[in-house]
Amino acid sequence: RQYHYACWLVLTGFVLDLADGAVARQLNACSALGAKLDDFADFTSFGLATGLLLQAHGLLDGLLVIVYVLAVFTRLCFFSSGMPFMYRGLPCPYGASMVAATYFLTGGHLVAMRLMAMVMILFMVDQGFYPHDKVLESQAWKKAIFGGGRSRG
Fold it and tell me: How many other CB atoms are there within 10 angstroms of residue 135's CB atom?
């Protein structure tokens, strides 16, 4: 029931999800196993954990959580658009971050969070294309994360 801390953990997971891919590419340490583990971590952090933030108290709430988790699962299954620098469907870390941010912006208002989750479900299963975030995918961002990782290691 520590939803405030849980939302901070989801947002921290979002930043770390961006960083791990950047560091793996910088170190040329990408692998098929790493990609599968990343998808599993995304499903756990941005599907299951975010579903718990929605605090299902009844049948309709539970159904929303199930649909949200299935939307994350669907999004992860169809991640690759085949087009460079484009996503197909909104990435689940972005959706989860929006739900967590809604918690902070509304003081934990459950109806607002559930409405945001419904909107994020629609965006995640949408077959439209979404551009990569230019700031978070920039070379400067990758170098900063890589440099931070190297200085700690």
Answer: 8
Cα-only R_g, the chain: 16
Q: Do residue 84 and residue 113 come from a single domain?
A: no
Q: pLDDT by residue (tens digit) across 32-77?
A: 788 788 889 999 999 999 999 999 899 999 999 999 999 999 888 8
Neighbours of 71 (CB within 10 A): 23
Q: Are residues 15 and 73 in the same domain?
A: yes
Domain count, the chain: 2
Q: What is the pTM of this model?
A: 0.77
Q: At what angle do helices 32-42 and 59-77 cross, to 10 degrees?
A: 160
Take residue 97 and report the two structure tokens written for it: 């971050």
| Domain identity same for 21 and 76 | yes
Collect all residues with Cβ–Cβ distance below 8 Å to 130 and sequence separation of at least 6.
86, 87, 88, 89, 90, 91
List the domain range (segments joined by +) for residue 61: 1-88
Contacts of 71 (CB under 8 A, 6+ apart): 92, 95, 120, 121, 124, 125
pLDDT at 141 over 80: no
